[in-house]
Amino acid sequence: MDHSLLLTGREPPDLVDIGTLQLERQTAAAFTQMQYAAAQDGFDLQLVSGYRSFDRQAAIWRAKLTGLRPVFDARQQKLDLATLQGFAKLEAVLLYSALPGASRHHWGTDFDLYDAAAVDRDYQVQLLEHEYHAGGPFAPMCEWLAVHAFEFGFFLPYRQYRGGVAAEPWHLSYLPLSGPYLQRFSLQMLQQAVENADLPEQTLILQQLPVIFERYVSTICDALA
Q: pTM for this structure?
């Protein structure tokens, strides 16, 4: 397989179904093991999102830039993108939504999760920080993951805000694969994927691509911290 196609979401990895979603095969096996261990402590780990293709990420990107989906600021308040111009507009979207071709979800190694045992069956997960922080329904799960996730190969790449992607306590990554993938991923791969797509603000994206790559792709939290 051409790794540039896999890493930019234009070809899928070896995927396994987890309910209605999918993960890369090794990641799925490790997740199932972690899910079983968590269940012994009263948690029901379930996916909110898993593998996501380039086209799916592009649909999210278009919807946010065109106002069809909400965009949130660092305080998780809705933003009016019409009030922003230039790179500030892209930055507002990039805070929570990766550029198509640059999403770790393309690899099948990364996923968002919640504790189904902590909420009613009809609860709609919002992926907002208050759900995962102290007092939120998923805070105990986060405490469990902080102790146990690495035993199964998982870490939180966006555990803290580091100037690019916002803190995402719901986002886990399977380090044995995502670590090498990130090392192999290059600016040139991303540029080719973007050039061959049809994205809103494409010219501006290409102009700012080195900054986007450094700030929103390369900058993650240390897995062992």
A: 0.96
